[in-house]
Amino acid sequence: MQKITFYGWQVGMQKVAFSFLLRDRGGLNIKEAHESTVRVLNEQPVTLEVSAELALQLLAQAEVLGVKCRLES
Questions:
Q1: Residues 35, 41: Cα–Cα separation, whole Å
Q2: Residue 6 burial (CB count, 10 A)
Q3: Taking each helix axis from N to C terminus, what angle separates 52-64 and 15-24, rounded to the nearest 10 degrees?
């Protein structure tokens, strides 16, 4: 398992698409995904623990959407 932390955003962040990403790939329900997106917008870190392969995919996709994120050890 690998932890991925979403900690901030860049101008032009696609917040709706990020919520969908968290719901569809991150395993969160719609309420959790929305709340997590709001936290990231407020620059409060959100950490998920997923498989290593999925963490790499989420990292790449979130960065494209304008989300600042990193893998945790």
A1: 10
A2: 25
A3: 170
Residues of the chain with pLDDT under 70: none
Domains of the chain, first to last: 2-72 (3.30.1390.10)
With beta carbons less than 8 A apart as the criterion, state whether 21 and 59 touch. Answer: no
Q: Dig out the tokens for 29 from the structure.
A: 């329900």
pLDDT tens digits, 21-38? 999 999 999 999 999 999
Residues 6+ apart with CB under 8 A from 51: 1, 2
Are residues 36 and 46 in contact, defined by beta-carbon separation less than 8 angstroms? Answer: yes
